[in-house]
Amino acid sequence: MLPDVDLDTPALKPCAAIDDPFSSDLTWLVHRVERSLTGEFDAACRAVGLKDMRDTLVLAVAGDGVARTQIEIAQTLGLDKTTLGAIIDRLEERSFLVRVVDPSNKRVRRPRTTDAGYEILDRALAARDEAVNQSLQGFTTDDIASLRTLLWRVATRSAEG
């Protein structure tokens, strides 16, 4: 069941081709949701002192106990290596992350989240959760679980073959 929305309100029509909640282009709807939630996540990150959500994603992946190279982190997060390098540099300058020399190959450095990085990550994720909960206010727990499950299935479909 969709909320009671006045589809004749011009502000609710992003363009003439997208005006029906039952037949709107799915990619456009997912894009709009992504922009909205990313904007809220970015604002939550800025509120605790990080630049944007990519900082939290890098800190989370670098701190999950799996020693990854920068290239592996970039692949995991879908970031290009230049962008990731700039994020890691910024986080390292603020002592949220360190590059640890790989004992089996001295040329390889593996980013690792520091204690300060875990602290700010926890604060950023708590702020994110609060922002997302506000965005999803009015949805039931089952609605949110279904949304998460469906999005996960779409996101991982190509990886599963």
UniProtKB/TrEMBL annotation:
Domain HTH marR-type: 23-156
UniProt-listed PROSITE patterns: HTH_MARR_1, HTH_MARR_2
Transmembrane segments: none
A Pfam family: MarR
SMART domains per UniProt: HTH_MARR
Keywords: DNA-binding, Transcription, Transcription regulation
Any one GO molecular-function label of the UniProt entry: DNA-binding transcription factor activity
Swiss-Prot/TrEMBL GO biological process terms: response to stress
Official protein name in the record: MarR family transcriptional regulator
Species the sequence originates in: Agromyces atrinae
Lineage: Bacteria, Bacillati, Actinomycetota, Actinomycetes, Micrococcales
